[in-house]
Automatic annotation (TrEMBL):
Localization of this protein: Membrane
Keywords, ordered alphabetically: Hydrolase, Protease
The species this protein was found in: Archangium gephyra
Chief site of localization: membrane
Transmembrane portions of the chain: none
Annotated Band domain residues: 3-188
Full protein name: Regulator of protease activity HflC (Stomatin/prohibitin superfamily)
Membrane topology annotation: Single-pass membrane protein
InterPro entries: Band7/mec-2_domain (IPR050710), Band_7 (IPR001107), Band_7/SPFH_dom_sf (IPR036013)
Top-rank lineage group of the source organism: Bacteria
GO BP, sorted A to Z: proteolysis
Entry GO MF terms: peptidase activity
C-alpha cells in the first residue's frame, strides 16, 4: 500500500488498527488485512435544485458544494472506505457521501428560497450563498459525518422560460419607462429653464419700467413742486400787490381828505387848469349844460368849433 499525503490510511488486522495516518506506505498480507483509505483533499460537488419561491414561482438553482473530510476516523466508522488490493473501493459508500451532502444542502437551500420572492432569489445570490453555507456548517448531520463544508457557490438561479420572458418584458417596460421619464425630465428641465429665463426677462422689464415710472413720478413731483412754488410766488405777489394798492389807496385817501369837501372848480383853479383855453371853454360849456333850463337860445359859430378842434392851445386865447 502506498497512499498520497491527501489520503488517510488505516490498516486493520484481526479487528484492530495496526497502523494509521496520512500518506502511509507499507506491505501487508491481503487475506488477513483490511485497508481503509479516506481522502482528505477538498472536493467540489455540483448540484441542481428545483425549488419554489415565496410567491409560488419555480426556480432552478445550480452551483457547487466544496467540502473536506475533517475526521476520517469518524467517517470511516459510518461509511465503508475499505479498498481492494487493486486500489478500488470495495463498496459504493464513498459516493454516498456526496449524495448526502447535496441532500443536506438542498434542504437548507429550500428553507432560504421559500422565504424569498422570485425577484430577490434571482438577484441576491450572495445572500442565498451566505445563508445556506451558515446553515450547513451548523447542521448536526454534517458534523456527524466528520465533514467540513468549505463553500457553497450559487452559479445560476433561473425561473421557468415563461416567467423569464415575462420578467424580461417587464424589465424592458421598466427600462422604457425610465427612458421616457428621463426624456420627460430633460424636457421639463428645459421648460423650467425657459420659464426662469422668461421670468428673469419680465422681472428685468418690470424693473426698467419701474425705474422709468419713478423718473416720471419724480419729474411730475418736480413740476408740481415748481407749480406750487410758482403759485406760492403768485400768491405772495398778489398779496404784495394788494397790500401796495391798499397802501396807495390809504395814501390817496389821506391825501384827498383835506380837499374832499371842496368845490371842484376851486380845485381846478388851484391846480392851474385856468391857464388852458380849451379847458376853460369846456368848463363854460359844462356850466351852460348845467343851466340849460335858464338859457333861452345859444349860438355857436362853426368857426369857433373848428378853431377849438384844430387850433393849438396857444391860439385859443384869441378865439375866447
Amino acid at each position: 500500500m502506498k497512499a498520497p499525503p491527501t489520503t488517510y490510511v488505516m490498516q486493520f488486522k484481526d479487528g484492530r488498527v495496526k497502523r494509521e495516518g496520512p500518506g502511509l506506505s507499507f506491505f501487508y498480507w491481503a487475506p488477513t488485512t483490511t485497508v481503509v483509505a479516506v481522502p482528505l483533499a477538498s472536493s467540489d460537488v455540483p448540484f441542481a435544485f428545483n425549488e419554489i419561491t415565496q410567491d409560488f414561482q419555480a426556480v432552478t438553482l445550480q452551483g457547487q458544494l466544496t467540502y473536506r473530510v475533517a475526521d476520517p476516523k469518524l467517517l470511516a466508522g459510518l461509511l465503508d472506505y475499505s479498498v481492494k488490493p487493486s486500489g478500488e473501493y470495495a463498496s459504493e459508500d464513498p459516493s454516498k457521501l456526496e449524495e448526502r451532502l447535496v441532500q443536506i444542502a438542498q434542504v437548507r437551500a429550500r428553507t432560504v428560497v421559500q422565504s424569498m420572492p422570485l425577484r430577490e432569489v434571482l438577484v441576491q445570490a450572495a445572500t442565498i450563498e451566505a445563508k445556506v453555507l451558515s446553515g450547513l456548517r451548523e447542521t448536526e448531520a454534517v458534523r456527524m459525518l466528520g465533514v467540513e463544508v468549505q463553500g457553497f457557490a450559487l452559479l445560476s438561479a433561473r425561473p421557468t422560460p415563461e416567467m423569464a420572458r415575462a420578467l424580461e418584458a417587464e424589465a424592458r417596460e421598466a427600462l422604457q419607462r425610465r427612458a421616457d421619464e428621463a426624456i420627460y425630465a430633460r424636457r421639463n428641465a428645459a421648460v423650467e429653464q425657459e420659464r426662469r429665463i422668461k421670468e428673469s426677462e419680465i422681472a428685468t422689464e418690470l424693473s426698467v419700467e419701474a425705474g422709468k415710472r419713478q423718473i416720471r413720478e419724480a419729474q411730475i413731483a418736480a413740476d408740481i413742486a415748481v407749480e406750487e412754488q410758482r403759485a406760492s410766488f403768485m400768491e405772495r405777489w398778489s398779496e404784495n400787490e394788494r397790500k401796495a394798492a391798499e397802501a396807495k389807496a390809504y395814501s390817496l385817501e389821506k391825501t384827498l381828505a383835506p380837499v374832499r369837501n371842496m368845490d371842484w372848480k376851486v380845485l381846478m383853479a388851484a391846480a392851474g387848469g385856468g391857464n388852458d383855453p380849451k379847458l376853460n371853454i369846456a368848463l363854460a360849456f359844462r356850466e351852460m349844460a348845467e343851466n340849460a333850463g335858464k338859457i333861452g337860445e345859444l349860438n355857436v359859430s362853426p368857426d369857433l368849433l373848428r378853431s377849438l378842434l384844430s387850433a393849438p392851445s396857444g391860439n385859443q386865447g384869441r378865439h375866447g
